[in-house]
Amino acid sequence: MTTMTRRNLLTMIGTAAGSSAMYYAMTTMGHAMPSDYSGPIKLEGDPKGKKILVLGAGLAGMTAALEMRNAGYEVEVLEFREKAGGRCWTLRSGDTYTELDGTTQTVDFEEGNYINPGPWRIPHNHYAVVDYCRRLGVELEPFIQTNYNAYVHRSDAYGGKPMRMKEVLTDYRGHISELLAKAINQDKLDDVVTEEDKELLLESLRSFGVLNDENEYVQSLQTSAYRGYEKQPGGGEGAAPIPSDLLDPSEVIQSRLWTYLATHETMNHHSPMFQPVGGMDGVARGFEREVGDLITYNAKVTSLQQDENGVTVAWEDLAGGGTNTSTADYCVCTIPFSILGQIDHNLSGDLAAIVGSMPYNGSVKVGLEFKRRFWEQDEDIYGGITYTDQAITQISYPSTGYLSDGPAVLLGAYTWRGPNTFKLNAMKPEERVELALEMGSKIHPQYREEFKTGVSVSWHKVPWVLGCSGIWEDRERDYDTAIQIDNRVVCAGEHLSYLSAWMEGAILSSLDAVSRLHAKIINEGE
Amino acid sequence: MKTPFLTALTLGLFTAVTAQAQTSTFAAEDFTAGAYTATDGEALYQSFCAGCHMPDGSGAEGAGEYPALANNQNLEFSAYAAHVIINGQGAMPALGSFLDDEQMVSLLTYLQTNLGNDYEPDATLELVADTRPFDPEEELAEHEIQEQRRMDATGVPADIVVRHAVPGSDFPILSAVEVPRDATLVYLSGTVPQVVDEDADRGSADRYGDTKAQTISTLASIEEKLTSLDLSMGDVIKMQVYLVAPDGSETMDFSGFMEGYVQYFGTDEQPNLPTRSVFEVAGLANPAWLVEIEVVAVRGE
């Protein structure tokens, strides 16, 4: 095999060892737990006939409404939009959506096809979301995050040709294992590996890296069983398999395609992941079935005031016109700080300062509908994600409806912060769709031929939130202040969690907020 | 000076290819560079700011609003806009890391003289540079690295140890350390805890104390050994720690170890930190030992 520089090797090993060591230390200290949900909350005690006003009917707001009503409170919910769910949102055939600049898109997908502009996958370790889906009868199906037959792609690697993940993954692992085995056999690791561990380590490398008995990673039926064959084993005449060539070790490292392998290994992406059948807003609909009767839609909150007697909220009726006032004893405010910071409120100084200084990051998604599932039919890719260094960053294939004829929708772009997100935000939806086609064609040449229609959402241009998720100026410093009950108002939402931008963060934040609010109310002398 | 969240996202994701950004008219080449490469003020405005503030600067209103930049009196002096763009304000993220000083000046000049604004442009490179946030730690780290390189370049052997902090974290270890080529490395054997309670039975847990107490007595022994070699704790550059789970516990007492560790490293008296690994092991030579520590020190710093 060709030589690999020592720096390359050390970088790889260092990265792997360092991150796992750090992760172990963090879980030991309790900082990186998947979720601190410990089952349904029980709000016991006398709510004393109090009324709770919930601002916002996203997942945080509806969680609060559901739990507070169950506890015996009178609950009223005000929502800016014409429907519930907030960022838990699905665009499907026939929907229209108007961005801040007035550009309206009508979703022209085939009946049943959809795109989730916001959250689109549920980690199994997001226990609260999963539990609410169970309780609310939201049917989940597997979401395919990791597909070994999907691609990893960089414009500057392998001549810009997309590479099957299974090949890059297996060869990356195999070549590293061979190198490590060599180092061990040349006694290079004697200061970190004991004599008795040596043999065991070599044995594990043969297993991990698919090395042969001489500790070499070579072309063989064995390695092909992991990376794919030149010709797959079959039955009948001429059925014997033919092993495939390996990628050059140095080129695998130089390609940097390994950068895309780790995403799948993070807890938020561990298999299995889920999605609601028919679109992510299935979660919102589940909540709405429970608390929809409490929600006033098309209500734009313009003022939030509290004093010793209660909370008073003024709101515009965007549908019927006019200004209304709602009053309550307490308020759970789930309005994103990007909006709340512009509303006339009299929250206390420390909290007000945090509300007024939380930037919201951008994110852009593009949904593309094609006339047929060419990724399945031509390329044997069923669900999963292709990663690329182009601005679109990834292509996610539908995790449902496999083998069906007719049009299907894939996620053709998903940017997250960064300059490209701002560039895309400054473009019209059809320009973003065009860009996604242009870049996606580098991976799937069928794109242009098969394209049917597309839709795009840029979160900085979403009128009711003006961003994708909250960014802390200094979370360590501000978190405890931001989640405190400020006299009669407590704020909640993904922005007030350590699971930013995840639905789990919104629900956990809300559960914690209403639990504290309830404790305060039942313990207050009257 | 980049803010941490932007740095993480812009690091090494895209190939650097020269591309001329244009207005909002789509051009795939604009994206190959990742970062903003345009130097023209209008091109920067239309591909960056216009998304929220609109192409004509009229702003937009939803549940909240994006302020209009057209006919905006706050643009009379560029210092205000420079501050908002670089550091962010309200829901607007800090965007200074996307643009260099020249691009900032072009953009500010465009804002002051277009979109219905007719002010005397007053943006300068100095103004922009002075508006960028100052991070003392980052400055110091940059200074140290430059110092090291300068000495190498002039052919004089670098004689300082360069300690790289863990970026964006105050966890008291180094992410890396560079040792000059002519330095002497001193390896200490594994050091184990001292008896803290002579009266306790041999082999009993009380004899050596809990993980924290054992960490402290072990580090005290290491300090003694170093002193006898004319070295100090501040010379330690590498540490390997072996911890045993205490009786009745399923895992090692990492936080107990940390409580002892921070009494010796990263203090006001002894601010130096080592690179470090911590391992949980099944057992050590004495069943009552919960801690064993190896260190490497460097002489001649």
TrEMBL record, chain A:
Q: Which residues form a coiled coil?
A: none
EC main group = oxidoreductase
In terms of superkingdom, the source organism counts as: Bacteria
Keyword set includes Ubl conjugation: no
Question: Which pathway does the UniProt entry assign to this protein?
Answer: Plant hormone metabolism; auxin biosynthesis
Cross-referenced Pfam families: Amino_oxidase
| Catalytic activity reported | L-tryptophan + O2 = indole-3-acetamide + CO2 + H2O
- What EC number(s) are associated with this protein in UniProt? 1.13.12.3
**Where is the Amine oxidase domain positioned along the sequence?**
59-517
User: GO: which molecular function terms?
Assistant: L-amino-acid oxidase activity; tryptophan 2-monooxygenase activity
Q: Which UniProt keywords apply?
A: Auxin biosynthesis
A single Gene Ontology biological process assigned to it is: amino acid catabolic process
Q: Which InterPro entries match?
A: Amino_oxidase, FAD/NAD-bd_sf, Flavin_monoamine_oxidase, TAT_signal
Q: Which family does it belong to?
A: Belongs to the tryptophan 2-monooxygenase family.
Q: What is this protein called?
A: Tryptophan 2-monooxygenase
Instruction: State the species of origin.
Output: Thalassorhabdomicrobium marinisediminis
TrEMBL record, chain B:
Q: Which residues form the signal peptide?
A: 1-21
Enumerate the InterPro entries for this protein: Cyt_c-like_dom, Cyt_c-like_dom_sf, RidA_CS, RutC-like_sf, YjgF/YER057c/UK114
GO CC annotations?
cytosol
- Which part of the chain is the Cytochrome c domain? 36-115
**What keywords would UniProt list here?**
Heme, Iron, Metal-binding, Signal
Q: Keyword Metal-binding: yes or no?
A: yes
A GO term for molecular function: deaminase activity
Family to which the UniProt record says this protein belongs: Belongs to the RutC family.
Protein name per Swiss-Prot or TrEMBL: Cytochrome c domain-containing protein
Taxonomic source organism: Thalassorhabdomicrobium marinisediminis
